[in-house]
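Open question from group meeting: does this chain pack into something compact, or does most of it stay loose? Before anyone orders reagents, we agreed to write out a predicted structure and look at it together. Recording both the input and the output here so the notebook holds the full record.
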Amino acid sequence: MAARLYHSRAAPYHGAMHTHVNSVGLLVCADPALNFSTPSHIPRACIDALPPQPGIYIFRDEAGVPVYIGKSVNIRQRVLSHLRTLDEAQMLARTRHIDHERTGGEIGALLREAQLIKAHQPVFNSKLRRIREMCSIRLGAPLPEVVFAKDIDFGRTDGLFGLFQTPQAARETLRTLAQDAGLCSVMTGLEKGRPCFARQIRRCQGACTGEESAADHAERVQAALAPLRVTPWPYPGPIAIVEKSDGLRQRQLVDNWCYLGTRRPRGKAPARFDVDVYRILARPLLQGGLTIEQLPV
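Structure tokens returned:
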């Protein structure tokens, strides 16, 4: 029944793509989503108010609870695409209002979306919804070890490689790298007993039997893990990322790969590493593509 709420009076969609011949004689396949009209139970005013600028939008149910939070560089265009998407009928059936919030640019929209999804846990957001406890592989001890963000500040610690949701995922990555690079399973902490199995089948260069020095093997371990390196926070304290869009200038505050909002919080605990913020910011920040203001520590 829900799907019928959003169907216009145009020809019904029965699962097949309709075709017609246009004015210049070309055979055109009509997108069935174009047959959908604006849901009548969502106030037209909140749809008409959507701006064509960057920001976030919130689909709310009858009680005002967010059921979906999204972001776009063009809020209006993105929300209208939701309203015409057949696969989102269930979400639209629960929606009674759509809010929006402009940001100064795409980075601000990404950061704000991640923050709100973690705060409200909308039922139709499959990504970013769960606050995860992350782990990583640390070098520096005699053997590589799996360490956890609850025990170590990832943003202030060097020598970390990879961000994983479980220790099993970290060890499986290390196992795959060991196989691909011909590393020793004993010297990577994946196996006990000497020689390791890989040495017995001539796939280990002999670190477990003394035929390869521990220093040489450690160097190869680091090279294999290098693409997964977690970059420590590259500033002594917080920064502001400055973005501008159609008269709106915004400063997104970040410290230790943790999003602080548009205003510096007072009296809060030190900023802790946030894996989602790291994944959003690491590449553009380290490549120098953002306008940055360093703030007092």
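Observations to bring back to the group:
Confidence is low (pLDDT under 50) at residues 1-25, 27-36.
Residues 106-120 form the longest helix (15 residues).
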